[in-house]
Design brief:
Length: about 260
């Protein structure tokens, strides 16, 4: 009940725990863990774009700055872990490519102060990192070959979609690739709704997972109402604040859901 109250009231305490790096000796423990962490890389690519856009727009700069710092550190750590774990030649190749794209993306993110003139480059680099992170996740799911591997992948992808919707909302609001960003937002929205239904109906979903999915669904209702108020090229600070904070709440819940699936055998 305490957890539900925190999420429903919109309190921000604890939201930044998502993406905070763990101990330096942490490593991939098994295939489910690998799929979870590989999928989290997808999310981080979009959370970083969202946070960068927020900083450029003046949206919750303290929160956005913390999200960016923790996400940069976690991406680095998990990339090291996944490269070391890679169980096939194909997976190793993917993570070698991702390492190069990630280096370029980091340069775009931290090389200059967030501003509209640099936003196109950030979105382009974010898309490249997302594509390779998605490929690595799918490859690891294929190695698993088990139904639970798919559920870890799908639930983990919901984290990414929450961040992608928010990033595209901020991008379109700023007038950066406004048309494509609005289209990408609509696509991510439809994919989130479809995947949520799949997770709810999955026979492997436990009572604990279903309870978390119910919280995510309630938060998505708030998120959806905020997203519907998009006016491309006309940023509204209150609406952008709402999108940023609600996307963080959904991320927190879906990270918990993915962790629960990861623990299933």
């Amino acid at each position: 009940m305490k957890r539900r109250a925190l999420l429903r009231t919109g309190a921000c305490a604890g939201l930044m725990s998502v993406g905070v790096p763990g101990p330096a000796h942490s490593q991939v423990t098994d295939l489910n863990d690998a799929i979870n962490k590989a999928g989290r890389q997808r999310m981080l690519s979009q959370r970083l774009a969202k946070s960068w856009m927020a900083l450029g727009l003046g949206v919750l700069p303290d929160m956005a700055g913390r999200a960016m710092a923790s996400s940069l550190a976690l991406f680095d750590r998990q990339l090291f872990e996944l490269k070391a774990y890679a169980p096939t030649v194909e997976v190793k190749s993917t993570y070698s490519q991702l390492e190069g794209s990630w280096s370029n993306y980091k340069t775009s993110l931290v090389g200059t102060k967030p501003g509209k003139a640099s936003a196109d480059a950030v979105l382009t680099d974010a898309a490249k990192v997302l594509g390779l992170a998605q490929l690595g996740t799918v490859q690891l799911e294929s190695v698993s070959g088990k139904p639970i591997g798919k559920l870890v992948n799908v639930s983990g992808r919901q984290r990414m979609l929450s961040q992608r919707m928010a990033a595209m909302y901020l991008s379109a609001s700023w007038g950066v690739q406004a048309g494509p960003s609005a289209t990408a937002l609509a696509t991510a929205h439809a994919e989130f709704v479809k995947a949520h239904a799949l997770l709810k109906s999955a026979p492997e979903s436990t009572r604990a997972i279903l309870d978390e999915l119910a919280i995510a669904e309630a938060q998505f209702g708030f998120f959806d109402r905020a997203l519907q108020r998009l006016h491309p090229g006309a940023p509204d600070i209150t609406r952008m604040n709402d999108v940023f904070t609600t996307s963080e709440r959904i991320l927190q819940v879906m990270d918990s859901v993915t962790g629960l699936y990861t623990k299933l055998s």
